[in-house]
Amino acid sequence: MTSNQGISCKTFTGDSGTEEHFISIQAPEDLSFKEQVAFVNANYLDMQRQLALSPETAVFRRIFLSDVLNQASFIRESDLLDDMVAISIVQQPPLQGSKIALLAYHVKAMKPFTKRRLSSKHLLVEKEGQRHLWSTRLCTCDHETSNSSEKQTKAIFDDLSSVLTEQKANLADHCVRTWIYMKDVDVFYKGMVDSRRDIFSKHGLTANTHYIASTGIQGACSHRFDLVSMDAYSNLDLVPGQISYLNDFDYLCPTKDYNVTFERGTTVSYKERRHHYISGTASIDKQGDVVHPGDVLLQLDRALENTDVLLKSGAATLDDMMYLLVYLRDIADFQGVNRVLRARFPDLPIFIVQGAVCRPAWLIEIEGVAITKNDNPLLPSF
Has this prediction a pTM greater than 0.85? Predict the structure, then answer.
């Protein structure tokens, strides 16, 4: 693990020798946007050199922007974009004051793996006999105001489902994680939720089966009239016993109790490691009620506690997190939240961005990925 003035990285190395790196770079606030992009790119390249990462090891990048409509064109012309990397671009202003922040995921394997584009929005990574589908910037690219988050949500999931079907996979059995972004989440969240519930039901995802780990949060893509956009990760070759779900009903109620359809966490197990995908987690109790209304620091404590109990249900802890992504409704809460998190996790890549949560009373939400060791020779290698 390394950390230095807005630049940090955490690495997991399994017994097979395969390394996973999560790199965080946040630009200084006192530079122009063009200078901030150059800073991020230069320090990203330097971090890759330090870690001996070739360009081929890059799998996924998420670029957080403060003003996507004005900034996305500059990003498209920068070296941060690469056709053989899944690139997410989302308007969620970094709250340390910069206009851009970068989360990058690299895999350095003992055996080579392949990447190929299925379309501009879907990248297929084939490794150790398993196909990993990274889908980014899924949106309708609307050119006029439809004002329907329901219709846009359906179109986005139809796009993902169509690609999965082409690869002889499906939404219910192979999609592991989604990130759903909405403009004005206080207004458009319900439409997305209602549409997703209907879509899931048609695909066999119900309260009696399972759902998909997810975050539904305020954010925007680079198209002016899109209300909803999405990133997703799917494993197209999961085998029985490879996937499980994280819950602790002494702390958190099932999401169906308040009529939403997502898993609080999902674990994908491999021969020598386990990936734990934590959905957006807020200050909620086992009755589904908001805990500590009006107090963001107490809500942060409860959200971290909830995350820890979810991880413990999968034999992991907060210490196993590879990064934390923190969403704040009110930018005035940044200093206090940042102070607490940096003291508790001094070397962990942490992103604090502006993104309102689905209930106005939730002032903060957190998510991330944890990785732990595993020893099950019956499962595929990562």
Answer: yes
pLDDT, average across residues 84-95: 98
Distance between CA atoms of residues 292 and 21, nearest Å: 35
Q: Kindly report the number of other CB atoms within 10 A of residue 208's CB atom.
A: 7
Q: What is the CA radius of gyration of the chain?
A: 19
Alpha carbons within 13 A on the beta-carbon side of 76: 9
Strand order of the β-sheet with 364-373 is 243-245, 265-269, 273-281, 364-373, 321-328, 350-354
The three state secondary structure string of the chain is CEEECCEEEEEEECCCCCEEEEEEEECCCCCCHHHHHHHHHHHHHHHHHHCCCCHHHEEEEEEEECCHHHHHHHHHCCCCCCCCCEEEEEECCECCCCCEEEEEEEEECCCCCEEEEEECCEEEEEECCEEEEEEEEECCCCCCCCCCHHHHHHHHHHHHHHHHHHCCCCHHHHEEEEEEEECCHHHHHHHHHHHHHHHHHHCCCCCCCCCCEEEEEECECCCCCCCEEEEEEEECCCCCCCEEECCCCCCCCCHHHHCCCCECEEEEECCCEEEEEEEEECCECCCCCECCCCCHHHHHHHHHHHHHHHHHCCCCCHHHEEEEEEEECCHHHHHHHHHHHHHHCCCCCEEEEECCCCCCCCCEEEEEEEEEECCCCCCCCC
With a cut of 70, say whether residue 247 has pLDDT above it. Answer: yes
User: Could you give all domains of the chain from N- to C-terminal order, each with its CATH number?
Assistant: 1-112 (3.30.1330.40), 113-238 (3.30.1330.40), 263-382 (3.30.1330.40)
Q: Beta-carbon neighbour count of residue 70 at 10 Å? A: 13
CA gap 45, 104 in Å, rounded: 11
Q: What is the pLDDT of residue 3?
A: 55
CB atoms within 10 A of CB 162: 12
Could you tell me which residues come within 8 angstroms of residue 119 by beta carbon, excluding any fewer than 6 positions away? 163
Interval 133-144: pLDDT, tens: 999 999 998 776
